[in-house]
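Sorry to interrupt, but I need a hand with the structure work. Could you write out one complete protein record for me, on any chain you like? Just paste the record in under my message, thanks.

. . .
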Amino acid sequence: MRIGVDSRLMYYQPAGISRYTWHLLQALAELDSEDEFVIFQHRKHRAALIQQRNFRRATLYAPVHHRLEQPLLMAELLRFRLDLLHSTDFIPPFYSPIKSVITVHDLAFLHYPHFLTTVSAEYYGQIDKAVVHAAHIIVPSEFTRQDLIAQLGAPPDKVTVIHEAANPMFKPLLLPEARRAVCAQYHLPERFILCVGTIEPRKNINGLLHAFAHLRDKYAPGDVALAIAGGKGWLYEETLELVEKLNLRSHVHFLGRVSDEALHQLYVAARCHIHPAHYEGFGLPPLEAMACGTPTIVSNISSLPEVVGDAALLVDPGDPEEMAVAMQRLLNDDELHAELRAKGLQRARVFSWERAAHRTLDVYRKVAEPRRASSQQPAATTPEKGL
């Protein structure tokens, strides 16, 4: 097969979808030395993402998320004679005869359309057409699969769940060393709770702040802090104002975006991690925390229970009291902490990029070789082992 993978977004946005694309490409390179891969990169992204004989770097000049993207892609892609193109950023080229596989990471833009910029609304507004046009759709969770079927009428046998995985670098480290490093760098006390995510309404940071204020007032008046690692998103000013209103300025630390290395140490050093989001298509931070041996608290909705299984505390993201109690338990109950640490490490091992690459290749083959695929069971009905 000659497989194209659209990786242009990696030049603009190094997080989220770009991380998914990068880890998938690395795993595919380790797994497949026979098929030919054409990795499409932005013209300014000069270094090849993958250095391997059967991986070829190619340039696409069509601008990402632009009104001219679709017509330019049609013309540019013709010369590569692909068997299929994997569009990892939701939207395939509509006017190309090449078969398309798309990854739909979540449908947050349908549930929270008022949080989109004009450019994003125009781009993701093409999702209905994308679902119809794509030969096959990859989603990161059964929750997102069901959401896609319910919201957009996607045929069930056209949608395959392929779980993502934590960055392989996330694993346990020596706690005293990690704690010394992050406490010195970020001026944190030894006991802190970590939240990782963009400061925006969907991540429910404001709800977490109310829960943390309740925790300090009722359960943990001592030296405990809340550290939030993530960039400023939509309506972040309201969050900063709430910190002042709740008198939490000395106890809440906004760390901004941090490197993977720093995030690794933060996960290990934190007493616990919390992810109180209202909506997630998958939710990597809880999985990353578990891979580092740090117990986590997650919302009991969307995809998050599917990711953590029985290895985390589940809470109602709309109930600050419930979140506060969960944080108090992990701060003070060493037996529970040790139990969830062990369960979390075991749960994190269920997910791997190698498994994701295997299943992605299965999708490619079903799309590129429809005759052979017709005699096989649809990928969407095949559960992942261990989940």
Remarks:
- The first strand starts at residue 2 and ends at 6.
- The mean pLDDT is 92.
